[in-house]
Design goal:
Layout (H helix, E strand, L loop, with lengths): L2 H26 L1 E6 L2 E6 L5 H5 L9 H13 L12 H34 L6 H9 L3 H10 L3 H7 L6 H16 L8 H10 L5 E2 L14 E2 L6 H12 L6 H11 L33 H10 L11 H4 L7 H13 L21 H16 L3 H8 L5 H14 L1
Antiparallel strand pairs: 1-2, 3-4
Helix pairs in contact: 3-4, 3-12, 4-5, 4-10, 5-6, 5-9, 6-7, 8-9, 10-11, 14-15, 15-16
Length: 403
């Protein structure tokens, strides 16, 4: 058997294992009710994204593992462990800080490998580019130690205060302006200027002086140049917003930066920095975005429709892979009850529960996907999640007629 065919079989086996493992866990946490002699699935209310995230080992750096860890950080409840009741406004502020911390921890873990690779590729251990790469992954302590090892005690002192108050940022930004006005920025290493930009809370562009003297010529510095979208977003989360700023503030700041000043959040399988995998020949649409970014937007903007965050093209190289969208939709709508599909409504003059064509399409699409892979039992389990028993009966009837 050729190497290509062997690799294809392995990919199919891995995909099969993922489908079965997650569905088996979902089944174990789902009650089956009977209504009018028809079984219906009722996911347990305590099922959370963190339960699925724990199915992936700590060393698993796959995109799917990142999705589950991010959804847990964004949507699962956070136990504030408050010993005394506080005013709603204070509780809300504490929750915002804790949510930002959870997202920061996830992002730092998610980009760690890319940061280490870039640091390793810098030729000189004394080059400031190493420090910038560390800061791009929020490895502040490592950056301080590196500056001390290089004998740059002034920079180490400043980096230790990165993300500081408005006065500190303003002072550093004033230094950048002086370098520009005095036309000496051309003699300062570009990575050094990037570090000072982060210290000043500038995460988009550092304008250069415009000297006509060839020896003094300097170019503008794009702070996030060469960084993938997750690290570019991290600059906005860690340095571009104030200490009191929320996750929503960071998302808005990043949205305003790309594509002019930062990498766009393309799907992982189109990202040149991602590990190679199976790719499809369809042309990417401009609206396609990484699922991680879509979930960030969903969490931060109530106007974002749930179906927008569940496009298969955001999760998989296959435009017909509904596996992760179905699991995420089930937890968000049935367990956490945080969001729902935009077309959820009631049939006029009917006493039946609210219906959603979008959720029915998602369920039937995933069931069809399972059916084509020979997973009939799993397909039936998924179909039990349809809003109305009659939908389930009709689909089963149509399937047998078709065959």
């Amino acid at each position: 058997m050729s190497t290509a065919r062997l690799s294809s079989h392995r990919d199919q086996a891995d995909e099969y294992d993922k489908i079965v493992r997650l569905l088996r866990y979902q089944q174990h946490n789902t009650d089956i009710l009977v209504e009018d002699d028809i079984p219906l699935a009722n996911p347990k209310g305590n099922l959370r994204f963190s339960n699925f995230a724990q199915l992936f080992g700590p060393d698993d750096k796959s995109h799917e593992a990142a999705v589950w860890r991010l959804t847990a950080a964004l949507f699962d409840e956070i136990d504030l462990q408050l010993k005394v009741p506080l005013a709603d406004e204070v509780t809300s502020q504490i929750m915002s800080v804790r949510r930002k911390r959870s997202l920061s921890d996830w992002l730092q873990h998610s980009v760690a490998d890319a940061v280490e690779n870039n640091v390793r590729n810098v030729a000189s251990s004394r080059h400031p580019a190493r420090l910038f790469q560390m800061l791009a992954g929020y490895q502040v302590e490592k950056a301080v130690d590196a500056a001390l090892e290089n004998g740059d005690f002034n920079l180490a002192t400043l980096v230790a205060q990165i993300g500081g108050d408005a006065d500190f940022r303003a002072d550093v930004e004033e230094q950048l302006v002086k370098w520009k006005d005095q036309i000496i920025d051309a003699h300062i290493d570009e990575s050094y200027r990037k570090i000072y930009a982060l210290l000043a809370g500038v995460v988009d562009i550092v304008p250069a002086s415009k000297s006509k003297d060839r020896a003094e010529k300097c170019k503008d510095v794009l702070v996030a140049d060469s960084l993938d979208w997750k690290r570019a977003f991290g600059l906005h989360l860690w340095y571009g917003t104030s200490m009191e700023g929320s996750v929503v503030d960071a998302i808005r700041s990043y949205d305003n930066a790309y594509p002019a000043f930062a990498a766009a959040p393309v799907p992982w399988y189109q990202d040149s920095t991602s590990s190679p995998g199976r790719r499809w020949s369809f042309t990417s649409r401009e609206t396609e975005r990484d699922a991680l970014y879509e979930l960030l937007k969903l969490n931060g903007d109530s106007n974002i429709q749930l179906e927008q965050a569940l496009s298969p093209r955001s999760y998989s190289a296959s435009p017909l892979d509904y596996r992760l969208p179905w699991h995420i939709a089930t937890i968000l709508t049935r367990c956490l009850q945080l969001r729902d599909f935009s077309d959820r409504g009631t049939i006029q003059g009917s006493s039946t529960p609210p219906l959603s064509i979008n959720v029915s399409k998602l369920i039937i699409s995933f069931a069809s996907q399972l059916e084509q892979q020979g997973l009939w039992q799993q397909a039936i389990f998924v179909l039990l999640h349809l809003d109305q028993p009659i939908e389930f009966v009709d689909f089963i009837h149509d399937s047998f007629v078709a065959y």
